[in-house]
Amino acid sequence: MLWAARKTHLRFIAGALPHAEAPVYVIGNPSADLDSMICALVYSYFANRSSRCHIPLINIPQVPSGPELCRLRPEFVKAFWISTNSGDPTSEPAGSLLQNHILTVADFAEHLKQRGIDCDPGPHRRYAADAVLVDWNALPIPSSDGQKGKGSLDGLPMVEFTVVGCIDHHVDEGFLGPDIKPLVIEKAGSCSSLVVNTLNTMGLWTPSDTEDRFPEEEPVARLALAPLLIDTVNMNAKDKVTVIDTEAWEFLRRILDSAPSAWDRDAYYRQIHETKSNSLDLLTVDEMLDRDYKQWTESPPSRAEKPLNIGFCSMVKPVSWIVQKAGNPQAFLDALCGFSARRELDIVVVMTAFSSPMRNGAFVRELLVCALQEGPAVDALKDLATRSASQLDLQEWTALDSADADDQAPAIRSVLDSDQFPWRRIWVQGDVTKSRKQVAPLVRQAVASPAEKL
């Protein structure tokens, strides 16, 4: 399916397809995490049973498919290889296989460049394409004519997408137009659960398939299970697991339990979790910040103030580990400021989540917020610290990685917890149930609807 979808894509941009045969691109969110990547693949696989070809488009604008994708998203490659029994994901052929089967935004842009289009050609010469969004519900670059449900991707401004469907578990951004199908925006631990259940509801992946299914459906079910298990901590995180997740899990389990090959859910979860936990080891600090990154723009209530760009970086390693990787606290702060400057951010937030040896392996979170400009950015974060301290259970930061890291805590605090320009704070986030899905709206609200100026 993936090889054929890539070929259809190349025919489409070459103008070799009639309008009736134009494909639908299935696009995950800009963080290109395990959930969004696998949702794009799984939805495309079954949606291809409808009247139109669906092509998964991995939302990574800087990296083409191939060996670099293996390095930057090893947990995806691990899940893909285990699910399809394709051999060793660390081997050289792995990069070649991805290169021939996976399409990224960087690949799309390169294909257009090869056709002589390497910049925004203007509104009258843009490619037009349809899209289904999974694990998000708003394109980052709205249409120039202001039409709802139309826009472009970072790294691909020469293509204007019309969103014809959406499956997501984040806050509704109000971007989508009317009469799109499917339209599912509901709370769930994993978007993959919504994708599985929606495909079932649409009749594209039905319970009867578990009795007389295509041979490829067992690996697809195993692939769909990967983000569900990771996002719900192997279905054990009571604060994350919803009825939707349970329904999807039961559906996938019936397929896998009836398969001829044996499978071990716990072993599968451990392999992918371990790969994800170690995924930052070979990355630079800049790559770590960019690896699971999302950005929003919010306008302060005063019309005199310009809109603020807010960036969120999520990581599975503690701040003390990242500081050590950078060399020292100031080097990490310099890297964070450089990363933010390149993206023209006014506020940058770093969220970490990991199991702490200092707390007997308990799951913990850290929250680092930085205002990069005086004025509304500083006011918003001070407002956040006041209004959300109780809601997030913000506590004085201490290193949670190891005793050695704790020795460096005073030096880290002196650099990362300061009233000096630019304003910044670091905390232990006591309420570990609040992920980026909950914290990002709080930061955005602090910009758009601040309390009385402090």
Describe the structure.
With 454 residues, the chain is of the alpha/beta class. The protein has 2 domains: 1-270, inorganic pyrophosphatase (n-terminal core), CATH 3.90.1640.10; 283-448, DHHA2 domain (Diaminopimelate Epimerase, Chain A, domain 1, Roll). The chain has helices at 2-13, 34-47, 67-72, 74-84, 92-101, 105-114, 191-201, 217-231, 243-257, 265-277, 285-291, 319-326, 329-342, 376-387, 389-392, 403-407, 409-416, 436-448, and strands at 24-27, 54-57, 127-134, 141-142, 150-153, 156-168, 183-185, 293-298, 308-315, 347-356, 362-371, 394-396, 424-429. α2 (34-47) packs antiparallel against α8, α4 runs antiparallel to α10 (265-277) and α12 crosses α13 (329-342).
Question: Short description, anyone?
Answer:
This protein is an alpha/beta fold and 454 residues long. It has 18 helices and 13 strands.
SSE order and pairing:
Elements: H1 2-13, E1 24-27, H2 34-47, E2 54-57, H3 67-72, H4 74-84, H5 92-101, H6 105-114, E3 127-134, E4 141-142, E5 150-153, E6 156-168, E7 183-185, H7 191-201, H8 217-231, H9 243-257, H10 265-277, H11 285-291, E8 293-298, E9 308-315, H12 319-326, H13 329-342, E10 347-356, E11 362-371, H14 376-387, H15 389-392, E12 394-396, H16 403-407, H17 409-416, E13 424-429, H18 436-448
Parallel strand pairs: 1-2, 1-3, 3-6, 6-7, 9-10
Antiparallel strand pairs: 4-5, 5-6, 8-9, 10-11, 11-13, 12-13
Helix pairs in contact: 2-7, 2-8, 4-8, 4-10, 7-8, 7-9, 8-9, 11-13, 12-13, 14-18
